[in-house]
Amino acid sequence: MEDNYIIEMLNITKVFPGIVANDNVTLRLKKGEIHALLGENGAGKSTLMSILFGLYQADSGEIRKNGKVVKINNPNDANALGIGMVHQHFKLVEIFTVLENIMLGDEPTKLGFLQRKQARERIMKFSQQYGLEVNLDALIEDISVGMQQRVEILKMLYRDNEILIFDEPTAVLTPQEIDDLMEIMREFARSGKSIIFITHKLNEIMAVADRCTVLRKGKCVGTVNIKDTTKEELSRMMVGRDVSFSVNKADANPGEVVLSVRNLSVPSSIHKTNAVRNVSFDVRAGEIVCIAGIDGNGQTELVYALTGLERPSGGTITLCGRDITRASIRNRSKTGMSHIPEDRQKHGLILDYTLEENLVLQRYWQPEFQNKGFIRFDAMRSYATRLIDQYDIRSGQGPVTIVRSMSGGNQQKAIVARELDKDHKLLVAVQPTRGLDVGAIEYIHRQLVSDRDAGKAVLIVSFELDEVMDISDRILVMYEGEIVGELDPKTTTVQELGLYMSGAKRSTVKEMSYA
Amino acid sequence: MHNESLSKKNVFHLKKITGSKAFSTFTAALLAILLGLVFGFIVMLIASPPNAVPGIFAVLTGGFRRIADVIYYATPIMMTGLAVGFAFKMGLFNIGASGQYTMGMFFAMYAGFFFNLPRGLHWIVCVAMGMLGGLLWGLIPGVFKALLNVNEVITSIMFNYIGMFLVDMWIQTTPGMYVADKARTAYLPASAQMPSLGIPNSGVNISIFIAIAIAILLFIVLSKTTFGYELKATGYNRHASTYAGMNGKRNIILTMAIAGALAGLGGAFAFLAPSSIPGSSVTYEPINVIAPNGFNGIAVALLGNSSPIGIIFSSVFISHIQRGGTQARLFGYEYEIIDVVISVIIYFSAFVMLMQEVAKKALRQLLDSLKRSFGKKGAEKASDAQPAAEIMAEPELSEVEKEGQK
Ligand SMILES: Nc1ncnc2c1ncn2[C@@H]1O[C@H](COP(=O)(O)OP(=O)(O)OP(=O)(O)O)[C@@H](O)[C@H]1O
Ligand SMILES: [Mg+2]
Q1: B371 versus B385: which is more confidently predicted?
Q2: A299 lines ligand 1 (CB under 6 A)
Q3: Measured distance CA(A485)–CA(A468) in Å, rounded
Q4: What is the pLDDT of residues A264-278, one digit of tens each?
Q5: pLDDT band at residue B372 under the 50/70/90 scheme
């Protein structure tokens, strides 16, 4: 039995300023298994895996491979031991092609010249074997997140890695892509590779994992066989209490129209066509409207236009009775718009600023936080402390933590806290619970509902059907840049929603009512 | 057991100090200087082996015998350094400090020659005019960048040339400014020269205090005001600053204008300096050369890590090396060789600063291999050394830590 373990991480401890990220954690990976790693945001999952991958050194504890103690000082060492990792935030060179990214660092050469053909053949072989479809000659910046992830996976295969670490691979994928990934992971396991899989989605763990190790606040709670456990038990182990997976909310009580969009068209950044075509809808005070759809059907561009990140090519946007079609972002914010952006690291945060500086990012100019142009640091501190407390944002050093060092989920919580707490009439939220643990999702969902109940208009873009069905009062389905249906979550089914999302079904009735 | 917990405590303490931002930047700067000196020494060795040791010694210590001059020459490059560093905080690479400096000089000199003002007021107006000239020359690339999205590097390089040729032409064609047979500008009236600090044989004057005051002012702007908050936010993440509704266009123009004004002041300070010989003044030769003080500003800013306070020190250091270099001539080094040595030291230091993380990694590997060669005997000590080595090590982590303590 014992010699079955391909990797053992024994009594690993890692201390960061102000926090013990891993406290005497032990994780044993069997050959050929899919081993899930579960834990709240900031529990230390990414840190533990970064230690295995050689990005960090443990303060104490040891790592064994096939029973032998090994020292992993850097990713090259990890690679030599057959360990590969797909990071929570990808690490690809945007301006290189897919092929170049996969070869990078392990290029076959002959007399100093790159042997592209050789590499290409090798990659194509893996690509076919596991059904990992990629376009080898496309630039990374032009391909979808899903494909970027396949590139990361091919990178590991190309290096003959046999121990594969996936850090929250499904957070950025669409449901269909998730199913594909699950199948690919099973295929890997069948061919003898061993997998560590980090996710917050318990369904995924139940579906593919053989065993699961649970961390809580840096400590190891235990390892369980998936066969012998349930979702409920897993979440109890992880959060320490029962978590409810569905949202309890009263019926919506919609009031006056807060956001009104008419005939909006938005150009696409990649193609010459419009990504959003002639879209009209309203969002009223006291209701949660979800925009459902498969990623890439114009949702991003629609939100960019609403929030001012991009200029629409036609149509009007009215917020609280004011035409804001061409208003500046600051003006929209003042008129009452809050925005939880899709890409938290690109738009939502200044990673090199502290947590408190980030928490006032939308408000630093208000009299509460500045006096004649001088920042009121005391006000900033006490405000940040309150939000950190209220939203349970976990970090090493509280308000002065550099956001870059925070765990992905806690970065997200910081944005949610900032946007919800800001004075607003409309909240535009894209994937507000992306990367959050079940406890945090429960909390954020409750916050969104209470925001609604406080008379705010809430517009959510989500790719997750469960979330859409659960939280919304009204669903708008987007397909190829158009709104193809308006559904009532109480009367519709996931199947019907799916038909609309895939373009198989559409109703034009509602659209016409706005004309 | 007891021992262990004690050592752990010490480690934390060490981590706190070495992890602080200022400390890590400071050590990096020292390391950079050290490596710069090594390479400078190598150049001297190649040029003239027997004289290399006394030569490098002269470079290092010569400045101490000329402290007033060190300060005098530090002032203009402090200003161009601030011009580069301030813009860099916003993510703008202001390579045009030379042009702004030259334009500032011209405006200041023009006011010096042709404004008839009382003593005590005249030089102040000249300084202000210099600031205005630089401001204009920074503003234009800023406007191009903000409104037309033209890369500021390209425009400011072009503006270095345009500025220099314009000024040289204006000077040569303005009667009363130029002494044709000496191919230099005329002597400025005494009222236009800045008050001297009264140190014999030196042009050192009150501009050093103005420069330091400006550096401190910039430090306050950057760290305490909403403008500084926006500026750094834009420098760190342009997309997020847009998302937060900051007025990027206005901030770019403002930042470039301020940077230009700073470099312009540098030009004014350099040429309004009092002369130790009565009746004369500092002069300018319009020989179609781009002012090197602008480029030195880039090195000053890099070595000072773009921090206004750091720039005060780095400018003095670079001036010190330059003054020392002139002393090395006593050991038979040609002027050109000394120029090469100084440039190697300055630019190599600046380059190493740029490569901070790489340098840290190298240092860590060194420590690691030392640790390994100590072997098992030093097991306890090694565990002590580990966290310290680590701070030097992990690029992501150390960045985080050094920022963490501001
Ligand atoms: N480089 C670092 N410097 C300082 N603290 C860090 C660093 N990396 C992580 N931490 C801290 O260690 C803790 C664990 O972070 P980690 O990223 O491992 O969490 P996680 O379990 O992956 O969470 P999530 O699910 O949100 O991604 C967090 O509190 C984080 O703030
Ligand atoms: Mg993580």
Answers
A1: B371
A2: no
A3: 14
A4: 999 986 666 788 999
A5: low
- Decide whether any atom of ligand 1 lies within 6 Å of the A56 Cβ: no
Tell me: the pLDDT tens digits for A90-113?
Answer: 778 878 888 888 888 777 767 677
Q: Give the H or E element holding residue A205.
A: helix A202-208
pLDDT value, residue A351? 94
Architecture of the domain spanning A2-239: 3-Layer(aba) Sandwich (3.40)
- Residue predicted with more confidence, A356 or A246: A356
Out of 3.40.140.10, 1.20.140.10, 3.40.50.300, 3.30.530.20, which CATH number does the structure's domain A244-336+424-515 have?
3.40.50.300
Q: Contact at 8 Å (CB) between A126 and A154?
A: yes
**How many angstroms separate the CA atoms of A252 and A340, rounded?**
22
**CB interface of B with A, residues 212-231, below 8 Å:** 224-227, 229
- Fold matches, A2-239 and A244-336+424-515: yes
Any atom of ligand 1 within 6 Å of the Cβ of A433: no
Q: Tell me the CA distances in angstroms from A489 to A428, A447, A493, A508, B332, one per residue in order.
A: 19, 20, 7, 18, 89
Residue B16 is encoded by which pair of tokens? Answer: 């706190």
Chain A residues 325-364 with a CB less than 8 Å from chain B: 328-333, 339, 341, 346-354, 357, 361-362, 364
Indicate yes or no: CB of A364 within 8 angstroms of CB of B245.
Answer: no
Query: pLDDT digits over A289-321, tens only?
Result: 999 988 888 898 999 999 999 999 999 999 999
For residue B3, the model assigns a pLDDT of 42
26-55 of A, contacting B, C-beta below 8 A? 55
Q: Is the pTM above the cut of 0.90?
A: no
Q: Which atom of ligand 1 is nearest to the CA of A45?
A: 21
pLDDT at B385: 34
Alpha carbon distance A258, A321 (integer Å): 7
Helix or strand or coil: residue A378? Answer: helix
Task: Give nearest CA residue, ligand 1 atom 17.
Answer: A407
Spell out the domain ranges in chain A: 2-239, 244-336+424-515
Residue whose tokens read 């009092």? B274
pLDDT (tens digit per residue) in A70-85:
999 988 899 999 999 9
The Cα A437–Cα A409 span in angstroms is: 7
Q: Is B23 near chain A, with CB under 8 Å?
A: no
Q: Is the pLDDT of residue B346 over 90?
A: no
- Position B30 scores a pLDDT of 80
Task: Compute the distance between CA of residue A139 and CA of residue A515 in angstroms, rounded to an integer.
Answer: 41
Selected from 1.10.287, 2.60.40, 1.10.3470, 3.40.1710, the CATH number assigned to the domain covering B49-332 reads 1.10.3470
Average confidence (pLDDT) over B52-69: 87
